Amino acid sequence: MDNIRTNIEKFGWHFLYIFDPEGNASDFSYSVGFEESYNHPEIIVFGLKKDTAHHILSDIADELKNGKTFNPNERLNDVIGGDMDVLFKPVQEEFHSEYLGLASKYYQKSFRAMVMFWPNKQNILPTEGGCDLTIQDEALKIV
What we know:
By secondary structure, this protein is α+β, with helices and mostly antiparallel strands. Helices cover 32% and strands 19% of the residues. It has one domain (2-140). It has helices at residues 2-11, 34-38, 50-65, 96-99, 101-107, 137-140; strands at 14-18, 28-32, 42-46, 75-76, 86-90, 113-117.
């Protein structure tokens, strides 16, 4: 918790990368501190490599710091670049302890969180018909 608290004080947020060494569960990353520092839901993203996820969440943190908000259930462009859209959907609170465990431990109270869904090469999101990505299927079960 000290490392999380230190990073939130210094940078406004902390990055966590969660992976299953056996490969039975999806890898994912999430923020801790967006709620506290920017009054914005924490963001979790599935299926991206650690460095890619950190870069995206860091860019989002910079946008939040400058007053931008990312609304749920709204298809947004210019978040991940490459003229690709994303969609944020609220995480059901019943999944917070399982998927956002350290955030739950840090806050010790209710907080908001959203999954950021990213598209396939045809800019089709996993929440839409015709998307051939399966790496974010686990995320679909928690929103």
